[in-house]
């Protein structure tokens, strides 16, 4: 995985207590900490999954789905773990973890955030693969980049509803509106949550800089901004923007090594993404 420098400045204060939010699922936190090199045991992760009936069921459903397309039925978490491999299992666990985090409050704005995160993760993963970057980290970064927005919509729903009513032409407009109405934007909120939850430093940059146009050359994090824009243009926007670039215009921002691999027809890519979302949501 590419090394990302972390911002050592103290993160801004949240307008709510991080402890007031539901805890992120322990299995998913374990998987996230594996990225930081704090633990490298596939067996430990597998055992943790097996101890949680909801995660066990979800992993088995995904392992037996067209998303993975194994040639035989998968009947145990251990079998799924060995066949998926460490990185893929970790990515799936984190995606399922975000879904579990939202389970009790899957209101339309939060469902839009969830769908956008999965779409961004899929685009980022493919872009990283074709650009010789860490595709597994790119997928996880896509899943986690908007955790600050999800937290704001959960913790201060009335205030965030006002943010959404204002609308925006571009992501930077939304950040300014969040600052004006909530005292913090979702990038700063995400960074604060990463610090409060003790997640690996790589996610400080993921949450704080995913709208920053100056991320070129920062490894896998550099694919997040165009991946967000492409996900939005395909109909998987976390919020409604009044103006979105066209599919082909946004593709022009991608590395040349990745650009030619995406379908020429935006509907084809949107269908691929929707199919993955449907499988994870049903798990």
What does this structure look like?
The model is unreliable at 1-8 (pLDDT under 50). The radius of gyration is 18 Å and the shape is globular. Helix 5 (86-102) packs parallel to helix 7 and helix 9 packs across helix 10. 61% of the residues lie in helices and 0% in strands. With 283 residues, the protein is mostly helical. It is built from 16 helices and no strands.
Structural key phrases:
283 residues, mainly alpha, Hypothetical protein af1432, 16 helices, 0% strand, globular, disordered N terminus
Q: What is the end-to-end distance?
A: 28 Å
CATH architecture assignment name of the largest domain: Orthogonal Bundle
- β-strand amount: under 5%
The CATH topology assignment of the largest domain is Hypothetical protein af1432
CATH class of the largest domain: Mainly Alpha
Q: What shape does the CA trace take? A: globular
């Amino acid at each position: 995985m590419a090394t990302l420098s972390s911002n050592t400045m103290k993160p801004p204060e949240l307008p709510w207590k991080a402890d007031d939010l539901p805890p992120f699922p322990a299995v998913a936190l374990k998987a996230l900490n594996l990225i930081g090199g704090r633990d490298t045991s596939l067996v430990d992760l597998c055992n943790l999954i097996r101890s949680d009936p909801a995660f066990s069921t979800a992993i088995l459903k995904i392992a037996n789905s067209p998303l993975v397309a194994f040639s035989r039925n998968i009947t145990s978490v251990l079998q799924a773990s060995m066949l998926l491999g460490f990185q893929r299992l970790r990515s799936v666990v984190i995606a399922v973890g975000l879904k579990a985090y939202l389970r009790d409050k899957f209101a339309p704005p939060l469902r839009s955030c969830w769908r956008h995160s999965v779409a961004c993760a899929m685009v980022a993963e493919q872009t990283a693969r074709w650009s010789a970057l860490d595709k597994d980290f790119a997928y996880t970064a896509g899943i986690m980049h908007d955790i600050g927005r999800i937290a704001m919509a959960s913790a201060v729903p009335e205030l965030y509803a006002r943010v959404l009513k204002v609308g925006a032409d571009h992501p930077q407009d939304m950040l300014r509106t969040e600052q004006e109405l909530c005292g913090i934007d979702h990038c700063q909120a995400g960074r604060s949550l990463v610090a409060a939850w003790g997640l690996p430093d790589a996610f400080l940059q993921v949450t704080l800089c995913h709208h920053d146009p100056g991320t070129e050359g920062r490894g896998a994090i550099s694919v997040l901004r165009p991946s967000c824009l492409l996900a939005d243009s395909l109909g998987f926007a976390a919020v409604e923007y009044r103006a979105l670039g066209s599919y082909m215009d946004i593709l022009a921002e991608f590395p040349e090594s990745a650009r030619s691999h995406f379908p020429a027809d935006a509907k084809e890519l949107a269908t691929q993404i929707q199919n993955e979302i449907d499988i994870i949501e049903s798990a």
